[in-house]
Amino acid sequence: MHPKRTKMVEIGLEVLPYGANAPLAAVDLGVGTGYFTKCFLQKFPSSRVVAIDGAESMIELARSRLGPLINRVAFVVGDFRELGRLVEHIGPIDVVFSSYALHHLNGDEKLGVIRQAAERLRSGGWFINADLVVSGDRVIEERIQKLRVEGIVSRIQGSDPRFQDEAATRAFLDQLEANEGDRPITLSEDLEIARRAGVERVEIFWKEYREAVYGGTK
Q1: Best CA proximity match to 197, nearest among 109, 103, 112, 106
Q2: What stretches of 67-121 show up as alpha helix (H) in DSSP?
Q3: Whole-angstrom Cα distance, residue 209 to residue 133?
Q4: pTM surpassing 0.90?
Q5: In 16-51, where does DSSP find H-type helix?
Q6: Could you tell me if 127 and 199 are in contact, meaning their C-beta atoms sit under 8 angstroms apart?
Q7: pLDDT in tens, 82-138
Q8: Torsion of CA 50, 54, 56, 58, to 10 degrees
């Protein structure tokens, strides 16, 4: 579903200008299965992460993935739209990162979350988001979506009946995105929201088709 996830997380971590032994305090917005948090903890072995997710089931998956790294993670079940309240017990934050989570929010909600993140970042701290975007051009978006479907069918190679052909795959994706309330926007809109939220030096670090990594500092 997300063939470039590993690359996106690698880029997000590579951008961070910290030494390996920096004792960083970080927040993962929408920890999901814990992939980004695991990679962060492995790169920065003196760091700690507050991992937030609205679903207890996802946090349990993250616990399973993290193994012994779990000792450096504080899990919080909650709505990260209330980020300020959820992290009020910790001091200034060095890094706020997220992957495949913020596209579930509308523009105003995303602005609110990133603003709360920027307010809690220490001076010089970083915000990194690896997420889905859409094209502002209908024809280009249709082409990207076709490439997306073709890629899934090719990678599955008939091993999953949900993706046996392009029609079945498109139907599955449409239903999944409707159920999950996906609301990705253009990358230019995302960058403007980050700027309005108080993130400075906002930059695109990587983009391929509908997946992008962007962020900036406080």
Answers
A1: 112
A2: 83-86, 107-120
A3: 8
A4: yes
A5: 35-43
A6: yes
A7: 999 999 988 899 999 999 999 999 999 999 999 999 999 999 999 999 999 999 999
A8: -80
Q: What's the CA gap between 185 and 209, in Å, rounded?
A: 13
Owner of token pair 């309330």: 181
C-alpha closest to that of 92 among 131, 115, 123, 61: 123
Can you tell me which residue has the tokens 């349990």? 60
Domain ranges of the chain: 5-134+184-217, 138-179
CATH fold label, 5-134+184-217:
Rossmann fold (3.40.50)
**Residue type at position 19:** G
Q: Classify residue 67 by burial, with Cβ atoms within 10 Å: 0-12, 13-18, 19+.
A: exposed
3-state SS, residue 123: strand
Rounded-to-5 percentages of helix, strand, coil across the chain: 50, 25, 25
Read off the tokens for 54: 């609205």
* Residue type (1 letter), 31: V
pLDDT tens for 186-204 read 999 999 999 999 999 999 9
What radius of gyration do the chain's Cα atoms show?
Answer: 17
Of all helices (H) and strands (E), which one includes residue 12?
helix 5-15
Q: Which amino acid appears at position 204 of this protein?
A: I
